[in-house]
User: Fold this.
Amino acid sequence: MLTAVAVIFVFSLLVLGHEAGHLAAAKRAGVKVHEFSMGFGPRLWGTKWGDTVYNIRILPLGGFVRMAGMDDDDRESEGSFYRKTVGQRIGITVAGPLMNLLLAVVIFVMVFTVIGEPRYLNENRVGEVVEGTPAYSAGLRPGDRIVTVDSIPTASWETVQGQIRSKGANPIQLGIDREGTIVNLQVTPELKETNYQIGILPTSVIERQGIVSAVSTGFKYTYYITALILKSFMHINPDEMAGPVGIVYMIGQASKNGIYVLLQFAGMLSINLAILNLIPIPALDGSRVVFLLLEKLRGRPVDPEREGMIHLIGFALLMGLVLILTYKDIIRLFGNGT
Assistant:
């Protein structure tokens, strides 16, 4: 139940931000918007405000903005999308992805100001013991103080961490201060990625930032993650790509770790959605921008039927990719019985 609520919340938030970007830009450019819908399928609720009908539909995993001119029979009507300049139409098209980037900033600012972020303390007290790790098996508990590692005094977390890593895969003796009683435990580190670890985390405190600092951090964080995602595209591994099932699973896992982790993940998904939509793949916003740029260069638009067919083929290929990724997600998550 928690996963379902988290999935609907995250997807609805990202879609709302994206479609609201298109809506706001269209209204600003003087384009008549017939409908703004959250979700697909039968309508659950709707109201009309001005010239636009606002709907909530039964399937909450998408949305759309229907503007005048999107139907072939009203391309030349008053307030049509296609009667606006190329620059205005590009602005409307890219407004969705740009709003997703702005939404990520807003999410991160809210995390830093309202929820706060954990700051790990450089003390020798154990804050968390990860289940299934050597520390867990050895009997370490949250609140234990690691005072020695192989008889070497460790007054800070930095010292604890350094001593454990220096021992490699060799068994080590930990001197534990547990509520004033010294307990000796033996534990053998295991290699995780590039470091030897035993599965413990330091104690932490929650720190909240002021609004000015949080806004600055939010923009920097969004820039950093955007750059990281773009860099990862240069070394993309198809086996690591996730489809809808994989994303739903990751949202569920994030929700189990609290609202801080869930919102952080939602912010990263919003950035991913923005970047994906700006890639010039037929049926996505980036491809529509390419056609608009061609119109500007040629002095006339690409034949609507030809453009529509290209977008249709692109959409079919995207759906094929989604099906392949969904199959891989299912095999990866459930094929080994986990």
Remarks:
- The longest helix spans residues 304-334.
- The CA atoms of residues 119 and 205 lie 5 Å apart.
- The two ends are 19 Å apart (CA to CA).
